[in-house]
């Protein structure tokens, strides 16, 4: 089992996955900072200086000025402002991934495709066996083959 795992790990599958997860984690931090520190303040200014991080409902019926006050009072809250920020995070990440995948697909399309390989075998029309394209007699059914076979 150890040998199988070692062979699997050395193939590069685990290393590729680990690199992808690390880059994804770093990218998530960048996008979260972009949303929280750049987009949300501008969006808040446009919507009348609404601070999305403090948009919440206290489920105990009390009114609190901030989420921190509600947490200090141990009040259950429905933090829909944080949810809005998370949705914007997701949309930015999804759009970014769409752009990256689109770019990669465009690069793949630009690579020249290899010309199709010339066939080296054909099918005997009598016994349906696969035979060499140069064969003049089928080695399986011994039928004589013409150029059209």
Count of folded domains? 2
Count of alpha/pi helices: 4
Give the helices and strands as they follow along the chain: HHEHEHEE
Largest sheet: 2 strands, antiparallel
Shape: elongated
Distance between the termini: 51 Å
Strand order of the largest sheet: 1-2
Strand percentage: 5-15%
Helical fraction: 40-55%
Using brief descriptors, characterize the structure shown.
149 residues, mainly alpha, Non-ribosomal Peptide Synthetase Peptidyl Carrier Protein, Chain A, two-stranded antiparallel ribbon, two-stranded antiparallel sheet, 54% helix
Describe the protein:
The protein has 149 residues and is mainly α. The protein folds into two domains: 112 residues, Large-conductance mechanosensitive channel, MscL, domain 1 (Non-ribosomal Peptide Synthetase Peptidyl Carrier Protein, Chain A, Orthogonal Bundle), CATH 1.10.1200.120; 33 residues. Helix content is 54%, strand content 7%. The protein contains four helices and four strands; from the N terminus they run ααβαβαββ. The strands form two sheets. Strands 1-2 form a two-stranded antiparallel sheet. Strands 3-4 form a two-stranded antiparallel ribbon. Helix 2 crosses helix 4. The longest helix has 34 residues. It is elongated, with a radius of gyration of 32 Å.
């Amino acid at each position: 089992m150890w040998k199988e795992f070692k062979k699997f790990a050395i193939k590069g599958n685990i290393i590729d996955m680990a690199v992808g997860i690390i880059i994804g984690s770093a990218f998530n931090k960048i996008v979260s900072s972009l949303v929280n520190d750049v987009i949300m303040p501008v969006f808040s200014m446009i919507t009348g200086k609404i601070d999305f991080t403090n948009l919440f409902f206290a489920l105990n019926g009390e009114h609190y000025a901030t989420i921190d006050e509600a947490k200090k009072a141990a009040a259950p809250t429905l933090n829909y402002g944080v949810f809005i920020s998370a949705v914007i995070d997701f949309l930015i990440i999804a759009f970014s991934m769409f752009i990256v995948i689109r770019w990669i697909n465009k690069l793949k399309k630009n690579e020249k495709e290899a010309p199709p390989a010339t066939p080296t075998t054909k099918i005997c029309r009598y016994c349906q066996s696969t035979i060499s394209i140069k064969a003049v007699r089928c080695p399986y059914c011994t039928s004589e083959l013409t150029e059209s076979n």
